[in-house]
Amino acid sequence: MDFQDDDLERVDNDGPPPLPVGEAGFVGHEGARIWYAVWGDGPAVILLHGGLGNSNNFAQQVPALIEAGYRTIVIDSRGHGRSSRDERPYSYELLGGDVLAVMDRLAVDRAAFIGWSDGACTALLLADSHPERVAGVFFFACNMDPSGTLPFEFTPTIGHCISRHRKDYAALSSTPADFDAFSEAVGLMQRTQPNYTADDLGRIAVPVLSVLGEHDEFIKREHAEYLARAIPGASFKLLPGVSHFAPLQRPAEFNRVMLEFVGKVWGPRPEKG
Fold first, then answer.
1. Contact 144, 227 (CB under 8 A)
2. Number of helices and strands (H, E) in the chain?
3. Distance between CA 259 and CA 139 in Å, rounded?
4. How is the chain split into domains, by residue range?
5. How many CB atoms lie within 10 A of CB 34?
6. What is the pLDDT of residues 104-157, one digit of tens each?
7. Is the peptide bond before 151 cis (omega within 30 degrees of 0)?
8. How far apart are CA 157 and CA 165, in angstroms?
9. Residue 37 near residue 23, CB atoms below 8 Å
10. CA 235 to chain centre
C-alpha cells in the first residue's frame, strides 16, 4: 500500500524523509543567501515549496524526478529553511528574482516548475515576466488574486503542519528563534499578493496545469478552475482525498500527476539501459 499521512501526524512527529545527497550551495542575491540543491542530468525541473516550509517538504518528489531522468533542483525561499532574508517586505517578485539567481548560478537556461502554494505563485509570476526561462508550471494550491482564498478555519491537519514548520525553522534557520516574526512577514505578503486580473493571466504563454486537492483548506476550487480557463491552453486537475498538503499526504498520487505533466512539457525521456 502506498504511503499515506492525511492528517500529517507522522510528518509532524518524524519529519519527512531526508533529501538525497546531492550538490548544495548558496547564492547571494538582494541581501539574502539563497540555499539550493541539485541532482542528476537531463531537462531541468525546479521545485518551489510553500510558505513557511522548506525544500525538505519535497523529499518524496525529488527521487521520483531523478529516477525519471530530470535534473532536479530545490530552492529554499528567502527566510525559509536554510536561506536567510533581509528586512525588506516579502513579494513574489523578490522570490522570483532569487530563483533566477539560482538558475543563473547553475547555468539553467529554462526549467519546468513544480510550485506548491507560494511556490506556485512565484513560478507563475516568472512565467509571466520571464517566459523564456519557464518551460511549464505545475501550479498546485495557490491563488492569483485575494478572492481565491477560503475563510481560515483551523484544523488538526493545519496544526500538525505548522508544528512541523516551527520545528524545521528552529533546526535549519540562521535565526531559529524568529519563527513568529518570519510567519507574520510571509502572511502579510499572502494577504495582499498576488493580484492578477483575467487579462494578466491571459498573457501567460507557457503550459500550465492548475492542480488542487479535493479538501484544500485555503484555496477555492472555483478559483483553481478559473485559472485553468483564464490562462491560455491551461487545464485543471483535482486530486481526490487530499488537501493543501498532498505532496506529504499521498506522495505516490501527487508524483504520478506531476510526472505526467513534466513528461508532456519536456517530452519522453530515454529508456534506461
1. yes
2. 10, 8
3. 13
4. 34-264
5. 28
6. 999 999 999 999 999 999 999 999 999 999 999 999 999 999 999 999 999 999
7. no
8. 12
9. yes
10. 18
Q: Residue 106 is placed in which grid cell?
A: 547553475
Residue length of the chain: 273
Note whether 215 and 242 are within 8 A (CB). yes
Average pLDDT for 183-190: 98
CB atoms within 10 A of CB 14: 10
Contact 40, 66 (CB under 8 A): yes
Residue written as cell 508524483? 255
Per-residue pLDDT tens for 244-263? 999 999 999 999 999 999 99
State the pTM of this model: 0.98
A 10 A CB-CB count for 1 gives 4
* Fold annotation for 34-264: Rossmann fold (3.40.50)
28: cell is 547571494
In a 10 Å sphere around its CB, with 0-12 CB exposed, 13-18 middle and 19+ buried, how is residue 273 labelled?
exposed
Pairwise CA distance, residues 108 & 133, whole Å: 8
> What is the SS3 assignment for 114?
strand
